[in-house]
Design a protein that fits this description.
- By secondary structure, the chain is of the alpha+beta class.
- 29% of the residues lie in helices and 31% in strands.
- It is built from ten helices and 24 strands.
- The strands form seven sheets. It has a nine-stranded antiparallel β-sheet. A four-stranded antiparallel β-sheet has the order 2-3-4-5.
- Strand 2 and strand 3 form a beta hairpin.
Length: 465
C-alpha cells in the first residue's frame, strides 16, 4: 500500500510540473539510463578507435615521457613508417669493439682499422612478433645514455589502447665491458586474453668454419640459464687475412605465453671476443667466462653502470643556435654524428680491465691536448664529415673520415685516449680552437660567426673551460 501511495503521489507531482520541466526531467532520466546501460555493454556510450589508430595511440603513450630529451636532441624517435617531418637516424649502439643496429638485418659489426666496419654473419638481437594482430612500431635512440630501444604495440583486444600488448626491447653495447652486448626485453599484456608471442633468435648464419655448442650457467637470481657458444672465421675482403671470433649468447625459447594482466622479462647477454687480422689460427677461449660473469650481475645494475659512462663522456659538449635555412647544419645532425663516431671508439678510461697506471696516462693525455687542433673550423666546410647516415656502412665511413681528419690536424695523440679524447678533438675542430701558451686561440672567419656557438668543458691542464 505504501508503494502504491508513493507512486500515485509521484505521478500527481509530475503532472503538476510545467511542460519545460517535464522535458528536462525526461532528458535527465534518459541520460541516466544510457550511462547505466553503457557501463554494462562497453560498445554503447564509448567509441572504439580504428584498428591502426589504437596501436598508434599505444605507441604515443609509451613515447610521451621522451619529449624533453627529443627537444634537447638527446633522443631521436623513428616511427614505422616515418611520420611527416621525421628524419631517419639508425637505432645503433656500439662501444668501439662491437656494434649492432636495431633497425637493420645486417647482423653484428666488429673493428677493422679505424671503425666497426667488419660485418659478422651473426644476429644477436631477438625479434618479437605476433601473428594475425595489428601492430605499430617505433625506435628510440637515446644518445645521452648510449641505448637504442624498439617499442612494439599489438592490438590484442579490439578498440582499446589500454589493452595493447607492448614489447619493449632495449639494447646497448656495454661501455665498461666492451666485449658485452645486452638486450633487455619486457613484454606486458594488460588485456583479458592470454597471448603467445613468437621470439626469433637467429644467431650465426654463413659464418665460415662455424662450430656451435651449448652450455649453461646461473643468473643473478640463481636461475639456470642456457647459452650457445659459436666459434668461426671472418674473411677480410680482398685480403689473405682473417679474423677468428668466438661468441656466446643467452638462449631463450621460440615463444612465450603471457597470461592476461601479466608481464615477462628476458635478459639476453652476448659476449664477443676476436683476434686482430691474422693469417694463422688463434683460438679464443675467454668468451664463456665473460658471459658467465656478467650473468651474475643484476640487469639494472649492469645498465646503470653503462649509462653512467656515457653521461661522463657527454660532460663535454657543443651547442649551436638553430637555423631554418635550407641545408643548414643543426644540433640534431651534429649530436647524432658525434654519437655515431664515439660509438666506434672504446673508452678505456672507464673499462674495468684498464689498470690504474693506464688510466693515469690517459688522464694526462686528456689534460694536455698538445698540437690539437691545427686548422680552420670543420663546422661548415666539410660535407663528408656531416654526410647523411642511413646504415652501419655510412657510420663506419663517417667515423673513418673523422679519425683521418683529426689525425692529420695534429690530434693523433689525444684521440688515442679513447672516446673522451676523440670528443675533445672534435670540439676543438668545430671552433678551430687550439690551446697555445696557456691561452685558447680560435681560427674562425668573422663570416662564420653569424650563429650562436656554445662550448662547454674543454679540457686543459687540471682545469676545464
Amino acid at each position: 500500500m505504501w508503494v502504491k501511495g508513493f507512486a500515485v503521489n509521484s505521478l500527481n507531482r509530475l503532472n503538476s510540473l510545467s511542460r519545460s520541466r517535464k522535458i528536462i526531467g525526461g532528458i535527465l532520466v534518459f541520460l541516466v539510463f544510457l550511462y547505466l546501460l553503457g557501463s554494462r555493454i562497453p560498445s554503447i556510450g564509448r567509441k572504439s578507435a580504428p584498428v591502426d589508430e589504437t596501436a598508434s595511440l599505444c605507441i604515443d603513450d609509451n613515447l610521451r615521457f621522451l619529449k624533453s630529451e627529443v627537444k634537447k636532441y638527446d633522443a631521436f624517435i623513428n616511427h614505422y613508417p616515418l611520420k611527416a617531418g621525421e628524419k631517419f637516424y639508425p637505432a645503433y649502439v656500439g662501444n668501439g669493439k662491437v656494434s649492432v643496429s636495431l633497425d637493420s638485418e645486417k647482423g653484428m659489426y666488429i673493428r677493422l682499422n679505424r671503425a666497426l666496419s667488419l660485418p659478422v654473419k651473426y644476429y644477436p638481437i631477438v625479434a618479437a612478433h605476433l601473428d594475425d594482430y595489428s601492430s605499430k612500431d617505433a625506435t628510440v635512440l637515446n644518445i645521452h645514455h648510449g641505448i637504442a630501444e624498439k617499442i612494439q604495440c599489438f592490438e590484442v583486444d579490439k578498440g582499446w589502447r589500454s589493452n595493447c600488448l607492448t614489447v619493449e626491447s632495449l639494447v646497448y653495447a656495454s661501455r665498461t665491458r666492451p666485449s658485452i652486448l645486452v638486450q633487455d626485453i619486457k613484454i606486458r599484456n594488460p588485456s583479458k586474453n592470454s597471448v603467445v608471442v613468437n621470439l626469433d633468435q637467429i644467431g650465426q648464419t654463413q659464418l665460415k668454419d662455424a662450430k656451435v655448442s651449448k652450455a649453461s650457467t646461473t643468473d643473478a637470481t640463481g636461475m639456470s640459464v642456457e647459452y650457445t657458444s659459436t666459434q668461426g672465421v671472418i674473411l677480410i675482403p680482398d685480403s689473405k687475412y682473417k679474423v677468428h671470433i668466438a661468441i656466446a649468447t643467452v638462449k631463450i625459447g621460440p615463444s612465450v605465453a603471457i597470461k592476461a594482466g601479466k608481464s615477462v622479462r628476458f635478459h639476453v647477454v652476448t659476449a664477443v671476443n676476436y683476434t686482430q687480422a691474422v693469417k694463422s689460427l688463434r683460438h679464443q677461449n675467454t668468451y664463456r667466462g665473460l658471459l658467465e660473469s656478467v650473468m651474475k650481475i643484476d640487469y639494472a645494475s649492469l645498465r646503470e653502470e653503462h649509462i653512467k659512462v656515457w653521461r661522463d663522456i657527454w660532460k663535454s659538449g657543443f651547442g649551436i643556435s638553430n637555423s631554418k635555412a635550407a641545408g643548414s647544419l643543426n644540433g640534431d645532425k651534429i649530436n647524432t654524428t658525434i654519437y655515431y663516431v664515439l660509438s666506434n671508439i672504446q673508452a678505456p678510461l672507464h673499462e674495468l680491465s684498464t689498470t690504474v697506471e693506464e688510466k693515469s696516462k690517459i688522464q694526462k693525455t686528456l689534460h694536455y691536448p698538445d698540437r690539437c687542433y691545427g686548422g680552420h673550423t670543420l663546422l661548415f666546410y666539410s660535407e663528408t664529415l656531416w654526410s647523411e647516415i642511413k646504415d652501419e656502412e655510412d657510420i663506419a665511413d663517417v667515423t673513418s673520415t673523422w679519425m683521418i681528419t683529426l689525425e692529420k690536424k695534429g690530434c693523433n695523440i689525444i684521440v688515442r685516449a679513447g672516446a673522451e679524447g676523440v670528443l675533445q678533438a672534435i670540439l676543438l675542430s668545430l671552433g678551430g680552437l687550439r690551446f697555445d701558451d696557456n691561452h685558447l686561440e680560435m681560427s674562425m672567419e668573422p663570416k662564420d660567426l653569424h650563429r650562436d656557438l656554445l662550448f662547454h668543458r674543454l679540457n686543459y691542464g687540471n682545469n676545464t673551460c
